[in-house]
Structure prediction request, 343 residues.
Amino acid sequence: MHRRTLLPALSAAALFVPHVLRAQERVMNLYSSRHYDTDRELYDAFTRQTGVRVRLIEANADQLLERIRAEGTNSPADVLLTVDAGRLARAQEAGLLAPVQSRVLDGRIPAHLRDPEGHWFGFSLRARVVMYDRALGLPPGLVRYEDLAKPEFRGMVSTRSSGNIYSIGWTASMLAANGPEATEAWARGIAANLSRHPQGGDTDQIRAVAAGQGRFAISNTYYLGNLARSQRAEDRAVAERMAVLFPNQGAGDRGTHVNISGAGVLRTAPNREAAVAFLEYLSGPQAQSVFADGNSEYPVVADAQPSAFLRGLGHFRQDPLNAARMAQLSPEALRIMQRAGWR
Ligand SMILES: [Fe+2]
Prediction:
């Protein structure tokens, strides 16, 4: 059998071990809910390095999952790429993903950012932070997520609805840290402190606070990065007004809640070896920087460089809660938020 070595795209780090690929596997089908031009360039670089063409199917995560289910054992899907550990865990629970054992992936991706059984791996990272108008500054007493529920912050918190997957993951991280009773009390405090009925996405929370509606926007970091590099001057002006608090950074505290954008190999993948090679390729330091920057996210590997925008936000410590544990706690987190009256 002919074998060829798969070289990592762009330049290689010493740690990055090439994966061996069978010559007859020339195509890989990538089902992705990402849609960034830089991603396409990365996939093309993978093709140049390996001869494996990446066929890209783009849709939102729910549509992709539905399509894979409908295609059943005939599905051409090799890799599912989507955002949020909660969605990846759903795909896993539906039996769609196959575990992958890869020394490259296990060695490069921190343990809390991948499924312990290898069903999915995080390839970029977003932190859920508090954004505020730098002209107004932060009031004293706000350094932790827990503080957002304090009575002195009535009418100041601008956040998404409880049904949103980011709200659920965030509350699941509170649940893991503080237990159900404290988390329900906290969720009641958040519901009481809302600046308005929860609506819109993270960008809408940032815009609201920039317009003076609420003081604290709860948002993933990349929304600010994407506003900062928007073609529209008014978006860039909003981004310039906002400063970022990374919560729970005090000595001995757990760190800021993070979630992943990640991928797994489908159980029915017709091109499994190419799929694994593709994931390993994405974990290389250069691919990591480009991939993460496509959505203003942090790379997950230590030797990859975050964008200038993210470096400008400063260093922060991550909550080391495993993304799989967070996903497990998500149903209970949602029930707690609903009981607490967080709409
Ligand atoms: Fe998002």
Summary: The pocket of fe (ii) ion is lined by residues 220 (CB under 6 Å). Residues 1-18 have pLDDT under 50 and may be disordered.
